[in-house]
Amino acid sequence: MMKRYNAVMERLKVTEEMRRRILHHVQQEVESPSAGRSRFWDAKLNRYLSLAACVVVLLAGTFVLKETLFVSPNSPPGVQAPSDFIEDVASIEELSEKVGFPVEELTALPFQVETRSYTSYWGELAQVVYSGEGQEATFRKSADSTDNSGDFTEHPTETQLELGDISVTLRGKENSFTLAVWFDGNYAYSLSLSEGVSAESWADILSWIST
Amino acid sequence: MNVIVSPPLTWMQRVRLLFARVFPAVDERRAEINRQAEEILDQYGNSILRYAYSYLHNLSDAEEVLQDTLVQFLKTAPRFENETHRKAWLLRVAGNLSKNRLEYNAVRRTDELNEELTAEQQEDLSFVWEAVKALPEGQRAAIHLFYYEGYPSKEIAKILQKKEATIRSDLHRGRAKLKELLREVYDFDETL
Predict the structure, then answer these.
(1) How many Å apart are CA B126 and CA B181, to the nearest integer?
(2) Distance CA A204, CA B16 (A)
(3) Residues 187-206, chain A: which have Cβ within 8 Å of B?
């Protein structure tokens, strides 16, 4: 019977036409979210795009722009271009500028850091990936209170680590934790390690939180 | 020949195009997003579409769930241990989106699959499809993930965010119901 069910399911396929349609809509949705899905992002994006439009008007010249742009006479000139999509930047300072809040550089990781990469997601989430000695650490910071780790692994062990006034949730297996998430009242943070360490080691890695 | 006609550009979209010419890196990032979406679509598009269809029984709705799942993937930027983990995440999101849609869809729309099977006089397939459709949502999802996707009950529990005991119960009841509906015409694999 279930072979027949499978035969029924096999009739449903993503056709070429459906594929083109979906990719087109996904691109549009990612660039310009529908009303109600992300009102915060819509308001922020529209404001920055309005300001960016004024900059383009000044740069590109009247002939090209007068047929394609609406110019707001009240918009201030020289406005910085908004962060867009997923953007790699060169430094922690640039990353802080992209997301609009300060991003800390971690210095007490359990391995010698050889490379760092800085990424802004949608101008809202800051990510720094540290690599070295075959290990990796992913640090994320965002201006909200949700778990921004993107880690959906089922961790069998969870414990709380108190650092000053901050309660850090550690997740892992037995006494080897690979993920820490916390909220300081203003920003959500997460740090994930490719190789788990003990809760005591985490206290050293995150000692900067309570300073 | 099918021609996809894009709607006229709004002034905001024209700004973006000009912005892309001035800052070509934006186009590169857009290409990267497109690449990620294409990769997911090519690898898991059919699975997600079929799973959504098992909930919604309508191709247009299932397509929108597939689209929304891709958007969630691109916006959330989740990290995975392996491909199995990634697929399970995608199916879980698709299931949640499908359930949300069911809550708001008061009117049942066309079941294209059933119409196609009927038109082709594939009565045996049509009977099976109607029987599975008749199952309660939880049992139907468990049956689909177990028999079509081949997940064990433990993994189904993670995807559906239920206890494993509940999944075993849903599978047991779903099979019993299907037997009753199909009057033991077909064989079942009893192994969990």
Answers:
(1) 13
(2) 46
(3) 192
* CA dihedral for A121, B85, B98, B118, sign (positive or negative): positive
ipTM of model: 0.73
Q: How many CA atoms lie within 13 A of B192 on its CB side?
A: 16
Nearest to B128 among A5, A20, A23 (CB): A5
Residue holding tokens 């099918």?
B2
Q: Could you report the per-residue pLDDT of A141-175, keeping only the tens digit for each? A: 998 888 888 877 678 889 999 998 899 999 998 88
DSSP B26-70: HHHHHHHHHHHHHHHHHHHHHHHHHHHHHHH--HHHHHHHHHHHH
Residue B15 · residue A53 · CB < 8 Å = yes
Interface of A with B in 69-108 (CB under 8 A): 69-70, 81, 84-87
Cβ contact B148–A6 (<8 Å): yes
Separation between Cα atoms, residue A101 and residue A84, nearest integer Å: 16
The residues, any chain, with a CB within 8 Å of residue A20's CB and separated by 6 or more, are B4
User: Under an 8 A CB cutoff, do A152 and B85 touch?
Assistant: yes
Q: What's the one-letter identity of residue A195?
A: E
Look up residue A196 and give its two tokens.
């788990």
The residue of B5, B79, B125, B192 whose CB has the most chain A CBs within 10 angstroms, and thus the best one to mutate to test that interface, is: B79
Q: Closest residue of B to A59, CA-based?
A: B22
Closest CA to A142 of A108, A183, A194, A180: A183
pTM of the model: 0.58
Nearest-CA distance B187 → chain A (Å): 6
Helix axes of B11-22 and B25-56: crossing angle, nearest 10 degrees:
130
Which residues of chain B are within 8 Å of residue A87 when distances are taken between CB atoms?
25, 29
pLDDT in tens, A51-98: 666 766 677 666 665 655 554 545 444 444 444 567 889 999 999 999
